[in-house]
Amino acid sequence: MTAKIKGISLFNDAFSDKRSTSSLGQMDDQNDPVNMILGLKALRKAAHDSATFQSGATPGRIVIPSEVAIRQTRQIPFEIDPPEHSGFRELLNPWFKRPLAAVYQVKLQQIIDQTIAHALEKDSVDIVAEFALPLQSKALSLLLNTSINKAQTWIDWGTHVFRSESSNLDADKANVLYNYIDAEIDKTMAKARPDDSATEDLYSVLLNAEVDGKKLTKEQVKGVMILTFAGGRDTVINAITNTIAYFSENINDLQRIANEPDIVNRAVEELLRYFSPLTQMGRVATEDTTVCEHAIKADSRVSLCWASANRDEKVFSHPNSVDFDRKVNPHVSFGFSHHNCLGATHARQILRQLVLTLANKVADIKVVSADEDIEQLGEFSRKVGFNHLVVSLSAK
Questions:
Q1: Are 248 and 366 in contact (CB under 8 A)?
Q2: For residues 95 and 201, what is the distance between their CA atoms, to the nearest angstrom?
Q3: Where is the signal peptide (predicted)?
């Protein structure tokens, strides 16, 4: 008999020692060093101070690893600062809040039901490639308000948009996404606007929109779409995969949700805090300044290390344990302040409906094999998810 694989749901805090001694970590990223803000209080302060720590630097520079070498298009509204940022958020927020609507949730539920049914039919399934990736891609078709048939193209791109087996920043692979978006924008520009606004996709909305009295340029539309495709891909896949990994070793917690469905929101927020699907995001200092009494030079990079802040023992009691009864949970897994994640509502809705459906339909989850995805971040080594997670699901 094969021995049970243990520790699948364990995500150690890679930043604990450094956070307690200096509150700042360091890493090099393509010869462009990064100072990592590790504590929650200092991180929130820096995230709120866009005048000192800007997002509107050279396109791609605030991302870690930097994407300066593989794109020139500015992701919008992610890579612009107030006050310009506000007009784009006002335009985009209503669209990205659509997952709160009942009709949206019905369609999302159909996708989730089909995904789980397919997994239950098989002896085993790779949760990353055969479950989380198709679910994320099909759910994206809802967010864009386009045909679900397009999702197969996005699934065929693989788990990572910019990363291949040979490189963490694959320009050729990135160009597949950029060329696809260019072609979709051109097709949308060539066709008449639908008479019924309910049939409009996000491309149409953007091409016919104005911000601060000016129509969006093609480059601005492309910037929004790159963010929409890339920003919620790896993170949602990680969140889904890590959630299932957790329940494989804590099946009683899944049964508790079946018995107490009212706790699902609290459970999802706690899983997001614990796993932190995105480790960090950068900013660029506009002037000489200090963080936690450490000098930061103008034009140098800092990171807002969400994963470290989410384990800050000064804020969270028993931060390295998953606690569905945690009463206060100011996690920053979706960022903080004006640059909080545009797709947070969509991601949360996927996880809420997925967890509830798993609780009602799945009796047990057994891990067959696992290959952990470990990030190397200078002096830190952090598990962010899985390259492969093969499991067997048993139906109730």
A1: yes
A2: 10
A3: none
Amino acid 349 reads Q
Q: Looking at the DSSP assignment, which residues form a beta bridge with residue 370?
A: 389
In whole angstroms, give the CA distance from residue 267 to residue 13. Answer: 20
Residue 237 has pLDDT above 90, yes or no: yes
- Using pLDDT thresholds of 50, 70 and 90, give the confidence band for residue 193: confident
* Alpha-carbon gap, residue 396 to 22, rounded angstroms: 49
Beta bridge partners of 303: 36, 282
Q: Which two tokens stand for residue 113?
A: 């039901």
Determine if the peptide bond prior to 65 is cis (ω within 30°): yes
CB of 145 within 8 A of CB of 200?
yes
Please check whether residue 169 is in contact with residue 65, taking contact to mean a CB–CB distance below 8 angstroms.
Answer: yes
Distance CA 275, CA 134 (A): 21
Task: Tell me the domain boundaries of the chain.
Answer: 16-395
Question: How far apart (Å, rounded) are the C-alpha atoms in residues 327 and 315?
Answer: 12
Token pair in block for residue 168: 């963490």
- Residue-wise pLDDT for 254-281, tens only, equals 999 999 999 999 999 999 999 999 999 9
Instruction: Give the global pTM.
Output: 0.96
The first and second tokens of residue 16, run together, are 């604990």
Helix H segments across 145-170?
Answer: 151-156
